[in-house]
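Appendix B: a complete holo record

For completeness, this appendix reproduces one full record from the ligand-bound portion of the collection. The bound molecule is S-adenosylmethionine. The inputs are the chain sequence and the ligand SMILES; the output is the full three-dimensional arrangement of the complex, encoded as structure tokens. No fields have been trimmed.
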Amino acid sequence: MANYEKPDAWSLRAQKEGYPARSVYKLKEMDEKFHLIPGPARQGFRVLDLGAAPGSWTLYTLRKLAGTGFLAAADLSPLSRRYDQGLFEGGNFFFIQGDITAMETREALLERGPYNLVICDAAPLTTGSRAVDTLRSLELAETALGYAQAGLKKGGGLAVKVFQGGDTAGLLKRIRELFSTARAFKPAACRGESFETYYLGLGRT
Ligand SMILES: C[S@@+](CC[C@H](N)C(=O)[O-])C[C@H]1O[C@@H](n2cnc3c(N)ncnc32)[C@H](O)[C@@H]1O
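The structure of the chain with S-adenosylmethionine bound, as generated:
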């Protein structure tokens, strides 16, 4: 068993590099491998970040967009303001504190689209029951897929976290139906024993 209380090397590196959570390295690795987020030279790139708190993916994306494009983010919890240096007050950023499965959150986010990319790192509070946790994670991933279906531009991409187990094959099949490429990817920054993985859809058809 890993000690989840003690900051590990990834968490310490994240703090040093100005991110509130180690999860930033999962997005960074996916971005480097699949070219999810372009630099500022590509104007008008719009990203939707679901399950965004404490805000590492949000900060990574805003820093990479460097004042161009737009990012909308949502979470049940507020974002940490520790490292944002004013980025969360920029005109190219919108945050809603709410449940991504709720109608009002969905409307607020979709009316700010369409998007080029949907990223979803949302995870349920774990209960200790693997079956329950897996089912809740799958529901959140299906929710993200719903946003991708309704809110992505043609050619757009999706990266979504899901706990392994349960009907992940069905999720991958539905991603395949919406995108020209669908695949699973487990970044190195996922703890060795973690049962989370990411599914990607590239090239919304
Ligand atoms: C692993 S954290 C996300 C970390 C984030 N990507 C980062 O880099 O800082 C998972 C988040 O999912 C959020 N979450 C879980 N269920 C949600 C829901 N139904 N609606 C909105 N957010 C949700 C939790 O509040 C939690 O902040």
